[in-house]
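--- STAGE predict ---
source: upstream dedup step, 1 unique chain passed
mode: sequence only
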Amino acid sequence: MENNPNILCIETTGEICSVALVHGAECVAVKESNTHNSHAKNMIPFIEDVLSMAEVDKHQLNAVAVSIGPGSYTGLRIGVSTAKGLAFSLNIPVIAVSTLESIAQPYLNKGMRVRPMMDARRMEVFTALFSSDGQLLEEANAKIVDETTFKEELTNFKTIFCGNGVPKCTEILRQFENASVENEVLSARNMASIVSRKFQNSEFEDVAYFEPFYLKDYVAGKPNVKGLHS
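--- STAGE serialize ---
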């Protein structure tokens, strides 16, 4: 097993289109944009850019990693399909990374629990809970946030809340002394330690069959094309 693998990391689950190149456990190049609906347009140029910045040829890649959700349905499909295409063409493995685990990474080992939150709809968020050392304490789930949602938890534990679901909950969370609020931006660079560990443990996906983790069923809106609905 390669001790310092080159792993291409793709993050498209939220508003940020982000691509990074990880060597070993270090992020050596990153390219990202928060331009709305730009994922499909930016993905391939960003991949080419980070490989160029890191001076790595695509055939030197040892694996491709992708954030698999929860998150935007369209973004998830773009990220996963790109990762699968690269894995097939280069004959390299795919590593799947929980978006919530990736968001939590910058805040681990600070002596507090970490609760990453992805924006869902209205006052709903996708969330999970990690101990300070990164152990999963609560599986990914959807919560509607009000004054009581985290009351018991914050009575007993200091917790860092992070992710793009935080802004809609900030006023509620600031009522609790044990809540620390951070608006962490999604970035492929946060995958570095996760993908390094998974690569060394050979935690790879079945390229043909693995799917994004949507958490909730997709509900399609009505089409706006004239003649398609009454």
